[in-house]
Amino acid sequence: MDDRANRLKDKVAIVSAAAGAGMGQAVAQRFAQEGAEIVVTDAHEKRVAETAEKLSDEFGRKVLGMRVDVRNKEEMEACVQATLDQHGKIDILYNNAGINKLAPVWELADEDWQLVQDICLGGCFRFSRAVLPHMIARKQGVIINIASIAGWHSDTGGGGQAAYAAAKAGVMGLTRATAAEVGQHGVRVNAIAPGLIYNPFLERIYDKPWFAEKAAETVLGRMGRPEDVTGLAVFLCSEDGSFITGETHCVSGGRYMHA
């Protein structure tokens, strides 16, 4: 295990969509390395149980794993209550759940549009709504919403991104609005907008030239790595980021730059 700085020591964090090999599990691992107590959630009950067991074994402390579909208000409320029962507080909410349905606007089915909005944007809203009364009562807390560079740039991914881009732009707006409302209560809300982050699953879909092409699109000449996002997340959730709220932080290797 890495000798991390324990910047999140004694914090309690809920991470959504944390099963499998994606960013959710990477963030949960990094938070645990930094000293946080972790609650992992996912819509896949078996995988989230396996993830919780894996993290418990790795860090030598109980990691709570719960099935939570971010479209389901009752499951989120049950997760919040279970977290309070086990840990007595919630310091961090990391809204990571997402999905995409690729289709041009004129071919995009209503149900696919709605599914993407419900998970990518609605999930951030509903989970935030579930934890905020507790954070406000304690006058402290941090929420991180995962947006995407697709929320800014319509050319991301080669087209067919209307549903995803709209949802992720909505996440940015939700982040600003929530931050404005809860800042007076000591709660901070930020978003992270990743570019293309490497995941082993991508190797099942794309060949080596595709990876080289995507790396060449960045100023730094490489694809993103999970630690590029997890390190920023730790910073934003720690005291080092205590004067930062309402912002969307781009992690794209310079692929897109903003004034």
TrEMBL record:
InterPro entries linked: NAD(P)-bd_dom_sf, SDR_fam
Pfam families documented for this protein: adh_short_C2 (PF13561)
Keyword Oxidoreductase: yes
Gene3D superfamilies reported in the protein's UniProt record: NAD(P)-binding Rossmann-like Domain
Entry superkingdom: Bacteria
SUPFAM superfamilies reported for this sequence: NAD(P)-binding Rossmann-fold domains
CDD domains found in the cross-reference section: SDR_c
GO MF assignments: oxidoreductase activity
Stretches that traverse the bilayer: none
Keyword annotations of the record: Oxidoreductase
Family, as annotated: Belongs to the short-chain dehydrogenases/reductases (SDR) family.
Cited PANTHER family: DEHYDROGENASES, SHORT CHAIN, ESTRADIOL 17-BETA-DEHYDROGENASE 8-RELATED
Protein name: SDR family oxidoreductase
The organism's taxonomic lineage, starting at the top: Bacteria, Pseudomonadati, Pseudomonadota, Alphaproteobacteria, Rhodobacterales
